[in-house]
């Protein structure tokens, strides 16, 4: 009996052992001609009958790994856009033994293997660990467009009116080209100038700081990166792009770009000149947004150069120089409701602002690896900026909604009418002239040395920065108070006319050392210490002309640096009008010690970083203002705990949880018990009893890629609360409309948000695609307001919920792409002091985008959508706007090197510029001037001189993209990662 039991147990153990055994197939894929590593290449394991067994994509090193648990003969299939399918016989004789396949070469060719039927599109989005990879060929863009138009079409990406880029809910801080830094600190140059025709793929990922890369110490300075991959074969040669255009309303947009690439050196030059606000191209990407960045009339000129050099062994060097000139003519109308307590306060303003700005920026990055254990990094930078401004504004405050009385609340007739009815509080007329010049330099030097192979290393780092700014500003302000009378029974009036001259100097330096000590296998104790000193000095001289009479400067209009027109009216030199009480001198010294302790554990499936930062800080502050001299010292200690946990389910699926606690101190000026009444309508006070605030931030992210369905999923949850956050207690004077603000510690501020990005091919061939981008956000914002200077403050809470959704369903083949898309933005806001100020507003849009490419070089891109608003108290804002844009292009010369295109913006003349913001203190609506509807004719010429015929042919006809990639309008692309051979047709023929 015992023998039978032992025999049965042995069989069970053997079965379990056998089931647990898996053969691991590993290898790498390289380009046959260039020997480049091929990342994001589809690798599939098939049975002899072509049925699907397993699949993956190669990582950034071109490597792959598959698992199989049964003996047998298999077929390994390699496929990628622009390459022939490659097949390899694989024989698994023992599932317990891994098989190394070595390097597998793929050949770039448009000729398909005989016996293979291919009718599929490449996947739009794939995932590799924590990196999203977008196939540029799968996103059609209008002919001649730049990568900004490509980014607008990426699932989960948004480009704001100000050029701010977000991807999967995180702001993009850095642009790379083929993994190399590009124009550091400037994302707009690449977005506005790199043509889509050279881009093969776009990667989005979080990149660690320079220090974290070499030490592994998480310093919380991750940056979200967009990395644009250049098409294979284009890394040797010259290419250039010239785009000349002119349009109605004297619109113009000229763009020049040239580049030289070889195996070690890359050089690029750019130039652009336009007065369209860099709007880009019509034909898609807007998804129903209102305004679309048309805030004023803007002229922009830019010239830049960038280079990268790598010797392949020890030295890498990159740098850039950029010049920008910008002119802005902005006219804005705003209407606000201020939540000041049990009474209403409304305000309207009309502003005219003109600015011009010139700036020079230069930066460089030098990395030297003299041996395998040493890394030296040096980053210098330089900047020079000059700016001028002039502005005029007219504003008024009311104690009731002015739109109940007039459609033009700032007109003289409306003001007179509402003054008779007791609805006016004040009016203000202002003018200003400003000028500033700023110089800044900075540098960072970092030395890292590995002490053996177990992960022990030490780092030394130094940082330095210096800036020198000089600014001048002359302002005039005339105020009329309707609720406060003078001794003759007339409305009170006053004026403030001042000239400020403010030199400012700042510099700082820091030294840091880090050390990493291995504790046990793949576990490290990491220590860091940094000392930082920061100094700033400001010496503002204020010259006051307010007592010279109401009409002393009448008849003068602001113009650039035109203060001499005003100062020449003075009886004495302006220096004799200095007001020592209003002049302000301040000097600030800050000494900070950062001490970090972190435990880092690395395993095959997960990675854990947990640590704490202790930050002793001493600040010395001197100030001479309004007759009060202050010399004070403050010593505080901040504590910041951190946790970062990443679990990798597979190469394409990952969970990440990140927590960071942050302590922040009140500013020294907020702590000083000084009342600043230099502006009677905006009085500020200090609060010496302020406490430091502590913020908890928690973020969880999950992403996955299901290869069979070309399905990419990314979701995240965020939560943040702040204890003792610093807000402002506001006292409102009903008679003058003036405000007195005092900083206070506030509890109860918190927010939570969630996001989902989803992209999937509906059919197995990838012709049909669906994508969605969903946002949900809840905010609880607390403030204090009061009515009357002596009234008790009331706690005001604004709770707002916002929901955003973008949904698109598209079809694409070799000559046609059609997408039906829609968007929804809903805001639900509740105010506990004034229920009449509650909001339920909707902005929604729906429409279609169409791209048609003809074999003879003609292409049409168009989009039409209905933009609608609902729920606004001002009925004129509840509008429907049918927006239609179009572009028609024709290619000429060999390879369509010359393209002529006609662009039509807002054909139906319906576009408006309106936006709304809501906070715990106010609701504000604003509208800008702009030219929205016009036509432009573009002439675009491309010069491409690359190393091989294949590289040159891949550039031709890039606007005529087939379903699997560019340059093959008459052929179908290779099968996608989600297509399984065996779904129909004969098995592929392969060559042993």
Describe the structure.
By secondary structure, the protein is mainly beta. It contains eight helices and 47 strands. A hairpin with a 2-residue loop joins strand 25 (491-520) and strand 26.
Major sheet description: 26 strands, antiparallel, barrel
The overall pLDDT average reads: 83
Q: What distance separates the N and C termini?
A: 54 Å
- Radius of gyration, in angstroms, nearest whole number: 32 Å
| Shape summary | globular
Structural class comes to mainly beta
Number of strands: 47
Give the strand content.
over 45%
Write the layout of secondary structure elements.
Elements: H1 2-20, E1 23-31, E2 42-47, E3 52-57, E4 63-68, E5 72-79, E6 86-92, E7 99-106, E8 125-128, E9 131-135, H2 147-153, E10 157-159, E11 165-167, E12 170-177, E13 180-182, H3 188-193, E14 199-207, H4 210-215, E15 223-230, E16 237-247, E17 253-261, E18 265-274, E19 297-310, E20 315-338, E21 345-371, E22 374-398, H5 412-420, E23 424-450, E24 457-485, E25 491-520, E26 523-544, H6 563-567, E27 584-602, E28 606-625, E29 628-650, E30 653-664, H7 668-671, E31 675-676, E32 682-685, E33 693-706, E34 711-723, E35 725-732, E36 739-746, E37 749-761, E38 768-787, E39 794-812, E40 816-831, E41 839-853, E42 858-870, E43 880-892, E44 898-905, E45 914-918, E46 922-928, E47 934-946, H8 949-955
What distinguishing features does this structure have?
6% helix, 8 helices, 992 residues, eight-stranded mixed sheet, 47 strands, disordered C terminus, mainly beta
């Amino acid at each position: 009996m015992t023998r039978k039991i032992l025999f049965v147990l042995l069989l069970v153990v053997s079965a379990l052992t056998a089931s647990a055994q898996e053969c691991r197939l590993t290898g790498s894929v390289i380009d046959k001609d260039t020997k480049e590593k091929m990342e994001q290449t589809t690798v599939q394991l098939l049975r002899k009958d072509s049925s699907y067994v397993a699949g993956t994509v190669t990582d950034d090193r071109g490597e792959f790994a598959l698992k199989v648990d049964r003996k047998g003969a298999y077929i390994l299939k390699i496929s990628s856009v622009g390459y022939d399918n490659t097949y390899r016989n694989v024989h698994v004789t023992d599932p317990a033994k891994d098989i190394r396949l070595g390097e597998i070469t793929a050949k770039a060719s448009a000729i398909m293997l005989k016996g293979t039927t291919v009718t599929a599109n490449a996947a739009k989005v794939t995932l590799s660990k924590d990196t999203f990879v977008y196939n540029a060929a799968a996103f059609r863009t209008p002919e001649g467009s730049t990568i900004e138009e490509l980014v607008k079409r990426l699932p989960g990406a948004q480009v704001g009116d100000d050029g701010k880029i977000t991807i999967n809910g995180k702001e993009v801080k850095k642009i790379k080209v083929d993994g190399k830094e590009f124009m550091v600190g400037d994302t707009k140059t690449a977005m506005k100038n790199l043509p889509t025709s050279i881009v093969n793929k776009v990667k989005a990922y979080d990149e660690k700081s320079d220090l974290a890369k070499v030490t592994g110490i998480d310093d919380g300075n991750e940056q979200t990166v967009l990395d644009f991959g250049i098409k294979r074969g284009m890394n040797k040669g010259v290419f250039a792009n010239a785009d000349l255009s002119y349009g109605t309303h004297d619109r113009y947009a000229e763009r020049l770009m040239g580049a030289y690439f070889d195996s070690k050196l890359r050089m690029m030059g750019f130039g652009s000149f336009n007065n369209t606000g860099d709007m880009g191209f019509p034909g898609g990407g807007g998804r129903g947004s209102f305004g679309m960045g048309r805030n004023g009339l803007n002229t922009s000129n830019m010239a830049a150069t960038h280079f990268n050099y790598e010797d392949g062994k020890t030295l890498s060097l990159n740098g850039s120089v950029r010049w920008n000139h910008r002119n802005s003519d902005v006219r804005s109308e705003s209407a606000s409701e201020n939540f000041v307590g049990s009474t209403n306060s409304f305000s309207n303003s009309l502003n005219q602002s003109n600015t011009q700005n010139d700036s020079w920026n230069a930066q460089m990055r030098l990395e030297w690896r003299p041996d395998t254990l040493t890394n030296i990094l040096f980053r210098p930078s330089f900047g020079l900026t000059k700016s001028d401004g002039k502005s005029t504004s007219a504003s008024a405050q009311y104690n009731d909604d002015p739109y109940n009385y007039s459609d033009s609340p700032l007109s003289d007739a409306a003001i007179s009418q509402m003054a008779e009815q007791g609805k006016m509080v004040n009016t203000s007329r202002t003018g200003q002239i400003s000028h500033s010049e700023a110089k800044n330099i900075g540098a960072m030097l970092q030395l890292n040395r590995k002490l053996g192979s177990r992960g022990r290393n030490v780092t030394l780092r130094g940082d330095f920065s210096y800036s020198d700014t000089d600014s001048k500003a002359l302002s005039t302000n005339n105020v009329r108070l309707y609720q406060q009378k003078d001794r003759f029974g007339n409305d009170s009036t006053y004026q403030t006319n001042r000239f400020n001259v403010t030199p400012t100097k700042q510099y700082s330096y820091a030294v840091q050392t880090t050390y990493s000590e291995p504790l046990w296998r793949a576990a490290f104790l990491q220590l860091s210490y940094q000392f930082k000193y920061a100094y700033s000095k400001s010496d503002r001289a204020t010259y006051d002309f307010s007592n010279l009479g109401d009409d002393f400067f009448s008849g003068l209009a602001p113009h650039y640096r035109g203060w001499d027109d005003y100062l020449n009216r003075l009886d004495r030199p302006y220096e004799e009008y200095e007001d020592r009480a209003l002049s302000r001198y301040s000097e600030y010294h800050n000494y900070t010690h950062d001490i970090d302790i972190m435990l880092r554990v690395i395993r095959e499936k997960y990675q854990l970083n947990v640590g704490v930062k202790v930050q002793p800080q001493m600040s010395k502050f001197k100030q001479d203002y309004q007759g009060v001299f202050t010399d004070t010292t403050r010593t505080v200690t901040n504590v910041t705990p951190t946790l970062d946990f990443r679990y990798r389910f597979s190469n394409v699926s990952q969970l990440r949880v990140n927590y960071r606690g942050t302590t922040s101190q009140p500013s020294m000026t907020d702590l000083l018990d000084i009342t600043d009444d230099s502006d009677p309508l905006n009085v500020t006070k200090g609060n010496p009893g302020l406490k430091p605030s502590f913020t908890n931030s928690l973020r969880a992210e999950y992403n996955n890629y299901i290869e069979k369905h070309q399905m990419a999923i990314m979701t995240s949850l965020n939560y943040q609360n702040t204890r003792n956050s610093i807000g402002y207690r506001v006292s409102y004077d009903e008679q003058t409309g003036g405000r007195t603000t005092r900083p206070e510690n506030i509890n109860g501020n918190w927010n939570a948000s969630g996001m989902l990005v989803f992209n999937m091919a509906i059919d197995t061939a990838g012709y049909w695609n669906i994508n969605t981008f969903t946002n949900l956000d809840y905010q609880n914002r607390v403030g204090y307001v009061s009515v009357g200077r002596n009234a008790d403050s009331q706690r005001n809470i604004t709770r707002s919920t916002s929901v955003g959704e973008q949904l698109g369903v598209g079809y694409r083949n070799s000559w046609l792409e059609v997408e039906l898309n829609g968007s929804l933005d809903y805001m639900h806001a509740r105010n506990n002091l004034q229920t009449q100020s509650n909001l339920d507003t909707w902005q929604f849009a729906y429409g279609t985008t169409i791209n048609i490419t003809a074999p003879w070089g003609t292409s049409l891109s168009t989009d039409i959508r209905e933009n609608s608003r609902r729920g606004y108290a001002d009925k004129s804002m509840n509008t429907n706007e049918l927006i239609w844009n179009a572009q028609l292009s024709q290619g000429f010369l060999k390879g369509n090197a010359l393209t002529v295109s006609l662009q039509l913006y807002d054909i139906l003349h319906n576009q408006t510029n309106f936006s709304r913001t809501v906070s715990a203190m106010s609701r504000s609506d604003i509208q800008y001037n702009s030219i929205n509807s016009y036509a432009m004719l573009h002439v675009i010429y491309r010069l491409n001189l690359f190393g091989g015929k294949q590289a040159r042919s891949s550039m031709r006809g890039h606007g005529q993209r087939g379903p699997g990639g560019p340059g093959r309008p008459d052929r179908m692309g290779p099968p996608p990662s989600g297509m399984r051979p065996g779904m129909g047709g004969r098995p592929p023929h392969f060559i042993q």
